[in-house]
Write a structure and sequence with these properties.
503 residues; 30% helix; 9 helices; 25 strands; 2 domains; alpha+beta; five-stranded mixed sheet; Immunoglobulin-like
């Protein structure tokens, strides 16, 4: 009996000791569920996940697609150096040319209801924080909203509609309150504080920090969604609705684009799944867009550095003969699939290039649009050079950039490259300067640095400012790393017309 009691006691002690010695539960991975949005070879990349704003959005789209309701929980970190007493969220659907009506119904900060004030022509709300948010700290904002979605009557292939229902499709970029960009006086002495500019249909109107998204969307089942990020789940809710869950890697915004009749096909390019969506009767053009997008992804990855995301989508949209870039999605106008088919390849290459110059490296699109637009336009020439040969790229430069700028000069309508969008006298002047002269500026850098050094410069530029926001001075400083004399001379010639000589 005594031996048995000692044995039992010993076993009991071992069991208790084992419990005491067991390892603590593993620390949650802050990169989940966002890693699937990156290519397999990029998922182990060390990222400071908790330094990005995080959006957890739950939305529901009405069967007629005219009303979207949503709730969101947004983690807001303050990267410093300034303390924040307020936050600003942009309501981009309320832009005049978007035509929507986003109404905020409730706001809470860390669970405590707070007041908010509409600003910037109702395209923003300002939230006064219950306590100061110091650099390095974070807070969580809960927002409820409703969004009235416009349905445009001019349902023709020539219509240009960035937002709402048109031609049987529903385009919903930035359908949620979006945290505004904040610039400290140290980072931007000329424009410190929250970014409150109100853009127009000319150029791009949205400006966003790289953020993480988990979006749960209940949608009419007949609608085929094209979205940013990676689809994680798809669940039938009833016979009429389906619930989707998407998550992204670090990205500028979240797009939802819908079409009842979309057809699609996919290919793989450098570890990324590329998918093209088209409407009935557009199969040939839709398959061509797929090959152009995959080819541009390969060609530009070789020149700029790897595209890090696991998905890239290209879809037809009510944008006439133009295109529009979004994170992991490029939308191309219906005319590019028909009457403007000869423009499809270049438009596709331009919008793919924006996945580097806008998505990875971002800039203020209202005040400095040339930084990304000029480089994306020049990248379409790089694509032509890789795929079709240098003579094709030279022809593009002469006809599309040099001839347009020369005509502008001859007409006395030339303008400095670094101007805000609304300071250009017309859309034609804006496009000629920002796209044409902007592309020629980057070509001048290439000639000054030489082939090998130029592409080394672009790869370092993309890597140094990945997921960041650049000012013109950042681009100049990167140029100076490679050739200070050439950098300053080029800057005076091409950019210095606005602010005078470099000091």
């Amino acid at each position: 009996m005594c031996g048995l009691s000692v044995g039992l006691a010993w076993m009991l002690w071992l069991l208790l000791a084992g419990c005491a010695w067991s390892e603590p539960p593993p620390t949650p991975d802050p990169g989940e569920p966002f890693r699937p949005g990156l290519r397999a070879q990029d998922r182990s990349t060390a990222l400071a996940w908790e330094t990005f704003p995080r959006y957890d959005l739950d939305i529901r789209l009405a069967d007629d697609r005219r009303l979207l309701t949503g709730t969101g929980q947004i983690r807001v970190p303050n990267p410093g150096p300034d303390p924040w007493t307020s936050l600003v969220f942009r309501l981009y659907p309320n832009l005049d040319h978007y035509g929507g009506l986003l109404q905020v119904q409730s706001v809470a900060v860390d669970g405590h209801p707070v007041n908010f004030l509409y600003q910037a022509a109702d395209t923003a709300i300002r939230i006064e924080l219950p306590q100061v948010l110091l650099p390095g700290e974070q807070t969580t904002v809960q927002i409820g909203w409703s969004l009235a979605i416009p349905e445009w009557a001019d349902d023709t292939p020539a219509a240009y509609r960035l937002f709402g229902i048109s031609q049987g499709m529903t385009s919903l970029p930035l359908f949620y309150p979006s945290l505004a960009v904040y610039a400290s006086a140290e980072a931007d002495p000329a424009r410190p504080g929250w970014w409150m500019d109100v853009g127009t249909v000319r150029g791009d109107a949205a400006f966003n920090r790289a953020s993480l998204f988990v979006v749960t969307a209940t949608l009419p089942s007949l609608q085929v969604p094209v979205a940013s990020g990676r689809e994680l789940a798809r669940t039938p809710v009833d016979g009429y609705r389906t619930r989707y869950v998407w998550a992204t890697g670090p990205t500028r915004e979240f797009l939802l684009h819908l079409g009842k009749d979309f057809r699609s096909q996919s290919v793989e390019a450098y570890g990324t799944q590329v998918t093209s969506y088209w409407l009935p009767g557009q199969e040939s053009a839709g398959r061509a867009a797929l090959q152009y997008a995959a080819g541009a992804l390969r060609a530009l990855s070789d020149r700029f550095g790897p595209y890090p995301y696991s998905e890239l989508r290209v879809a037809v949209a009510p944008l006439s003969f133009r295109g529009m870039e979004y994170p992991q999605v490029l939308l191309l106008g219906t005319q590019l699939y028909d009457t403007a088919l000869d423009e499809l390849e270049l438009r596709t290459a331009h919008e793919v290039a924006h996945q580097w110059w806008y998505l990875l490296v971002h800039n203020d699109p209202v005040n400095h649009p040339w930084i990304d637009e000029g480089l994306a336009e020049y990248a379409s020439g790089i694509y032509l050079e890789v795929v079709h040969g240098r003579s094709e790229a030279e022809m593009l430069r002469r006809r599309r950039w040099e001839a347009v700028v020369e005509r502008l000069v001859a007409e006395g309508a030339d303008a400095p490259l670094d101007l805000p969008v609304d300071e250009y006298a017309s859309g034609a002047q804006y496009e000629a300067v920002v796209y044409g002269k902007g592309a020629l500026f980057y070509h001048a850098i290439r000639r000054a640095l030489g082939e090998e050094t130029f592409f080394a410069f672009l790869r370092e530029y993309a890597e140094t400012y990945r997921y960041a926001i650049v000012e013109p001075s950042d681009l100049l400083e990167m140029m100076r790393r490679y050739d200070p004399g050439a950098a300053d001379a080029l800057w005076r010639e091409w950019i210095g017309g606005r602010d005078g000589p470099i000091r």
